[in-house]
Amino acid sequence: MAQANWQRSGAVPSPARYGFSDVERAENQLRAAGWWGDSGPLPEAEAVLETLSRTPDPDLALHSVDRLRESSGREWGELAERLASEAGLRARLLAVLGYSSALADHLVAHPDDWRRLGGEDVRWRGVDEFSAELLHSVGAMDSPSPGGGVPERPLATVDSTAAVAPLRAAYRGLLLEIAAFDLAGVVDPNLTAPSYEEVTGWLSDAAVAALRAAWAVAASELSGQHTPRLSVIAMGKCGGRELNYVSDVDVVFVADSEEDVAPATRLASTLMRVAGAACFDVDAALRPEGKAGALVRTLDGHLSYYRRWARTWEFQALLKARPVAGDVELGERYSEALWPLVWTAAEREDFVADVRSMRQRVEHHVPTEQADRELKLGRGGLRDVEFAVQLLQLVHGRGDENIRSRCTMEALRVLGERGYVARSDSGGMADSYAFLRQVEHRLQLRRLRRTHLFPSPAERTTLHRLARSLGLRSQGSQEAADVLLGEYRKHGNRVRRLHEKLFYRPLLESVAKVPTEALRLTTGAAVDRLAALGYTSPEGALRHIAALTSGMTRRASIQGTLLPVLLDLLGRTPDPDGGLLAYRNVSEALADTPWYLRLLRDEAVVAERLAFLLGTSKLVPELLVRAPEVLRLLADTSELSGRDPDEVAGSLCSAVSRHVDPERAASAARSLRRHELLRVAAGDLLGVLPPHDVFAALSSVWVAVLQATLDAAVRDVVARSEWSGPNGVVSGAELPARIAVIGMGRLGGAELGYGSDADVMFVCEPEGGVRDSTAVRFATAVVEQVRRVLGKPSQDPPLEVDTDLRPEGRSGPLVRTLDSYLNYYQRWAQAWEAQALLRARPVAGDAELGERFRAAVDPIRYPRGGLDLTKVREIRRIKARVDAERLPRGADPTTHTKLGRGGLADVEWTLQLLQLRFAEEFPELRTTSTVAGLHAAIRAGLLSEEDATILENAWTLAMRARNAVMLVRGKGSDQLPKHSRELNAVAAALGYPAGSDAGQVLDDYLRVTRRARAVVERVFYED
User: Fold this and answer.
1) In this predicted structure, what is the pLDDT of residue 653?
2) 564 near 507, Cβ under 8 Å?
3) Which H or E run contains 134?
4) Lowest mean pLDDT among 430-434, 499-503, 761-765
5) pTM score
6) Residues near 86 by Cβ (< 8 Å), separated by ≥ 6?
7) Which parts of this chain are annotated as the region Adenylyl removase (predicted)?
């Protein structure tokens, strides 16, 4: 059809149309082949020319065809005819000739070998067929028929020198077949290209066949002498069936007995010489003691060495060991004896660090100018993948036989399937590894030389041919060379990123420290180990373990990986049993959260921190199942501790404002508060949030909840009601009153704990001529709505709004106008009410009204001239009654954090008395914060620095201890626990080192509060 078009146009086509750059030479060669005439390509040659044009290097392909034509003689006619008619032969032969000059040389020297590539349905052959062919080539087997296997003794005496040439030719013939199948899909998309793994498997089988043939040749030279029992153990890529086209073949030799060692050494030396001259270098440097060690050892000698002297990298090398030639039974005994030793390597001290250090040493040996082009050893190269995979195998393979594969790709797949790495990571690394290996294969195929150096960007022609050999073509304006460069950089970067993620994963070090028997979580020995770790109910722990790891799911597999480490981590916490139960509950609650286990597996710091939190606190797991997103924050200390409270409050109010219904608004506020409460609790327990930041953050989130709920309640009440004012009906678009929320107590001081109520007062002011009574009625409806929705039962720590500090207490109105408050305080306020106002500050609602309230009550809480002695005595009397009557029955006054001696009340009343007496004189005392007030008292000369420090330390410790009890128990209490386990947990929550004596906590608390009580009695009760 194409020729008819040319003929109609009158144009004579040029060979350049088929990609030939030397047009004149190409036309002469095409004419000589019988494929070109005066009018251009002959019709019967069109398919051949089209295939030539798709080869990586059409000029090389045609030139090699011309050489083959000359060497084929009279057989050329048959070959040319079959090339025109057989698509499979045409694609396989021309693909090889169009890329590999070395295999073209082989075909020219052995022109009959093109027949290896013929046939449309070529049945691929395996290692036995390869072995039979190579053995036959050296005269060590009668027939090259398939399935011939390896003879235990040679069938003929073979001269090792004479055997080299036929063995080389036969081996190159096998490489020709493999390369042809490997490359054919590049030039003919109708042919299915073999996978990278199939190609490396064939190359490995060919190498094994060559070793067997070389063994037979070497053994034949011992004819008439004692033939030793010698087994050849393949190591490295040959052992893993992932060999390159050109590579050393790493081996180890093992003899059966001492009397076999000497003749076996001669046999091994001859084998290495024959295989090296004919096929590839045989490298025995991985043997015990390396090149300085004996070439051949007995099995006992190998075992003795590996048990006593072997270094970490030698066990890593054994991971790929497999018997391939020589005495089969001896080789199997070698594998059975040494294979278990491989899986003890990870128990060696500093094992993970040794493997990492070795990879770094290898990388440092790469010349700087070649670092980005070194396929094998450079950053993002093949060794990055292999070291990462082998480290993961050696660490996790002790307890999971499924990942004990010699093949890198198979190991990657199983590591992903079993959950040791993310599927996306294992898949991405496998894809990139296969790409880099294929690039390596193509580089070596060109001249059959060992190379791992990627061409530089300046080598455009080389890059273009390499790209086409990989099936990469030009894309738009982007040339094939640029496409290849882009793919190479993409895969190299991905390999390096994943290598650093997996190879330096901290979890590996933790798993490596777990004894091998502890990795098998269902063995009887696990009970003893759990008891040794501190679990009081090992049988119960095993039930939890069984529930988490049962089944064949990927989730169960990941749990099986994590649990040995987590059990150890939990064993270091105050309550391992409770921590494991909490972990099970959290895991079951988050079973459908896809990132949960992945986060624990990939971020060791998260697993460590989570174990500590679960084994210390009951509050954290209760919150965690309903706010799992906080787990992500455990990976980043700055995210856990660095959030600005004002920003958190703003985000909460903004999110809640989207809800019209107050119930939903309160639910959203509660959810966001839960998230923040859990973040603060985790940061507090882990010691990354200072105590006073904890108090401020808890207060800030309470304020935000109040503000958001108040806004929602106002919207709802206005929408549902009409308020009558003097000018008629007030519509929903207008507010009858402004409302401000005044924080009291610890909320006013921004010093809340985890279980604190919110002490508040509500003040309102009429708007737009509305009567006071209408404003109060409106505000009361809003406040009751706020209290109702926040006071609903919840699994979270309660959100109780306490208004008992308002004028007249519980019997007084819930809301007053500003004038009503002032009228009450000016006429009826008692000393304790003025004292309560010391911590009053506006926290929510109308800011301007709140500030006017603050200014209006200043004369009451900071009375002109201070307090007279009568009021001072009244406050002291009230404090004495509190000490005597308010302490709960049975409570220990020495360890009650709120009302006990030297506790919160002692310190706060002492400061507040100073404020009532002297704040009018010293304005710096006008603060709602306890700590700030103590510092101000120093500046005013009312407290010595020593006394203030003693009081501050006692107050801070009491606040922290109170919070710690809440975190440990999951419910609030002002009393330090007496039970040793709970006290240990409180100690851990307070930051005491693991294993500290629980009694130390009590001793420290009693000492600090005793000193504070002495200051209180001197400052509070003396004039």
Assistant:
1) 80
2) no
3) helix 127-137
4) 499-503
5) 0.75
6) 118, 119, 120
7) 1-507
